[in-house]
Amino acid sequence: MSKAELVVRLPAEARGLSQTEEYCMVALNGHEWAVRLHDYREMYRVPGLYEKILSDTLHCTSPDVVASLLTEQVAREGLSPSGLTVLEVGAGSGLAGAALRRKGIETIVGIDIIEEARVAARREHPSVYHAYYVEDLCHLSHQTRKELRAYQFNCLMCVSALGLNHVPAEVFAHGYNMVSDGGWVVFNVREHSFEDCHATGFIRLVQRMAAEGKMDIQVSRTYRHRFAVDSTPINYTVLVARKHEPIPLDRL
């Protein structure tokens, strides 16, 4: 099944939909149905559908923006992106991992909570990941924990999975603690997330880590993440930081 066989149509009445309520109409071989943008299991099951919707229809820029800002900051430190060993949390179908590979990063390990994500990544981007795990970072098997530790990660990446609580603070903390001290951390969140008086647990965690000196946020940039289904822009902010100390898990 090729991506060209898929037809994606934006809903006629989409104003007022929250980001988690957005959907598109998808047609394939004479059958049309509605797909919610955050129903990842369903999108990943159809070859090419996730990229058809996010990249081709809604013009998502986050994978390239995040990969570019990370590698630019690494280069400013006089380092080569090829020296990064990346743990990508919430790796999905591999769009962000593929953007890293295009920037010269060779060792990328993905982890996600659903098997459909790993199947899609292997199908859509078969040469991106050195390994791809389907597990909960908070409850890793002994063997997976041993294998992940052996990579000695010096970079953690999480793209478009934190702002809407897809990846809870506890999961981020466990991934963060797998990165060596002095390593890089890159993630994105919705614009103004850090100004929200009802900030998510993840945002509060990052604020505390920065205040306590456990994380040094080196650069941030706000950009158009993608268009909503009603054609209005959705802006995100990407942050690149350095890890100084682990997160005490008993304080989460």
SSE topology:
Blueprint: E1 7-9, E2 23-28, E3 31-36, H1 40-45, H2 49-57, H3 62-76, E4 85-89, H4 95-102, E5 107-112, H5 115-124, E6 131-134, H6 142-151, E7 155-158, H7 169-177, E8 184-190, H8 201-211, E9 215-227, E10 233-243
Parallel strand pairs: 4-5, 4-7, 5-6, 7-8
Antiparallel strand pairs: 1-2, 2-3, 8-10, 9-10
Helix pairs in contact: 3-4
Word description of this protein:
This protein has a seven-stranded mixed β-sheet with strand order 6-5-4-7-8-10-9, with helices on both faces. The protein has a three-stranded antiparallel β-sheet with strand order 1-2-3. The radius of gyration is 18 Å and the shape is globular. It has eight helices and ten strands. The protein is 31% helix and 26% strand. It is an alpha/beta fold and 252 residues long. It has two domains: 55 residues, no CATH class; 190 residues, Rossmann fold (3-Layer(aba) Sandwich), CATH 3.40.50.150.
Major sheet attributes: 7 strands, mixed
CA radius of gyration: 18 Å
Number of strands: 10
CATH fold descriptor of the largest domain = Rossmann fold
Uncertain segments are none
Spatial sequence of strands, sheet with the most strands: 6-5-4-7-8-10-9
Descriptors:
252 residues; alpha/beta; Rossmann fold; 2 domains; 7-stranded mixed β-sheet; 8 helices; 26% strand; globular
Explain briefly what this protein structure is.
By secondary structure, this protein is of the alpha/beta class. The chain is built from eight helices and ten strands.
